[in-house]
Design goal:
- Its cofactor is Zn(2+).
- This is Enoyl reductase (ER) domain-containing protein.
- Homodimer.
- The protein is α/β, with parallel strands linked by helices and about 325 residues long.
- The chain is built from 9 helices and 15 strands.
- The strands form 3 sheets. Strands 1-2-7-8-4 form a 5-stranded mixed β-barrel. It has a 5-stranded antiparallel sheet with strand order 9-3-5-6-10.
- Helix 5 links the parallel strand 11 and strand 12.
- The longest helix is centred in the middle third of the chain and has 15 residues.
- It is elongated and about 70 Å long.
- The chain binds zinc ion (2 copies).
- One zinc ion binds next to helix 2.
Length: about 325
């Protein structure tokens, strides 16, 4: 008979309050309860939302908190109610679950599952924590980022907030950004403002989200993909991933929207994706589109406006729509 999972002591990045500090601490991770899995993390990524969390959003002042929401790992142990995952499966934890049955899941228009929503409390769905920070003899319960916490060696997540992937289809470093950065950018070009064959697109900000939007635009057949960034070093990677025209926004003598329009015969692009969170770019992105039946999608907001964050999140995870099944997408586009 298999030995029951025990408490694991390991390391985690813990934020102790608004503004930090964030320190590597020794934590105890409890065994998974019946509907949960414990995951040995392989890779985790840093997202701007983690920085927001350090600065107090959306944590409601609840600390200490183990950070991180992007990552990939292997199932180390699981509860007896978990039937569709096994020890050794490679999984991506997500901040949003999917029941497949509620109105949202069935709508095809949103993946804001009503049964397994974003875990804004920083606790497991049953209202308890699996993390305890150890400081000598002192033990302090810790919150997790949202529905999961990936900046740690081991973590527990409800099985409804984990997606199994084919470990051979993508290396862990690339798989690590699937659940947030990649899905935000790619999902926007697929679902929010569907890019059509032969259309023109502009992407403002060529970080991980923006480059994912570029790849989404390319894979959906955009004929012209204009990339805007102030960082000249991004020109090369952007062109390799699909940007046909790169605009360095530093030192322009005219508004960048005008430069975009000059590249589209004065009309503007069919769809624009703002991925920088830089406020002046938001206005420019809206001015850079054709003024008839077009969409400008804002994906990031550095100053943390709730409305925009909700908007942003509504496009996250669109790719991970069928839980437990292999994620059906062209992983190779990221490599
Ligand atoms: Zn993120
Ligand atoms: Zn649902």
């Amino acid at each position: 008979m298999a030995k029951a999972p025990q408490v694991i002591t390991c390391k985690a990045a813990v934020c102790w309050g608004v503004g930090g500090p964030v320190k590597i601490e020794e934590v105890e991770v409890e065994p998974p309860r019946p509907s949960e899995i414990r995951v040995k993390m392989l890779c985790a990524s840093i997202c701007r939302t983690d920085i927001l969390c350090i600065n107090g959003f959306p944590t409601q002042g609840l600390y200490p908190r183990v950070l991180g929401h992007e990552g990939v790992g292997v199932v180390e142990s699981l509860g007896e109610e978990v039937k569709d995952l096994q020890v050794g499966d490679t999984v991506i934890p997500t901040t949003l679950g999917e029941c497949g049955e509620c109105g949202s899941c069935e709508s095809g228009r949103t993946n804001f599952c009503q049964k397994y929503p974003i875990g804004a409390t920083g606790l497991m769905p049953d209202g308890t924590s699996r993390f305890t920070v150890r400081e000598g003899n002192k033990r302090t319960p810790a919150y997790q980022f949202l529905s999961c916490a990936t900046w740690c060696e081991y973590m527990v997540v409800d099985a409804n907030y984990a997606v199994k992937i084919d470990a051979g289809s993508i290396p862990p470093p690339q798989a690590s950004i699937i659940s947030c950065a990649f899905t935000s950018g790619y999902g926007a070009t697929w679902k929010a403002a569907p890019v059509t064959v032969g259309s023109s697109v502009a992407v403002f900000g060529l970080g991980p989200v923006g480059l994912s939007a570029v790849q989404g635009a390319r894979m959906h057949g955009a004929a012209k993909i204009i990339g805007v960034d102030k960082n000249e070093r991004r020109r090369k990677i952007a062109s390799e991933l699909g940007v046909t025209h790169f605009i360095n926004s530093e030192g322009l003598e005219k508004p960048v929207s005008e430069v975009v329009k000059e590249l589209t015969d004065g009309k503007g692009v069919d769809a624009c994706f703002e991925c920088s969170g830089y406020a002046p770019f938001m206005n420019q992105a809206m001015k850079a589109v054709v003024q008839v039946s077009t969409r400008t999608i804002m994906l990031l907001q550095k100053s943390c406006c709730c409305k925009v964050i909700i908007y942003f999140n509504s496009y996250v995870h669109f790719l991970i729509v069928k839980k437990r099944k292999r994620v059906e997408m062209a992983f190779t586009c990221m490599i």
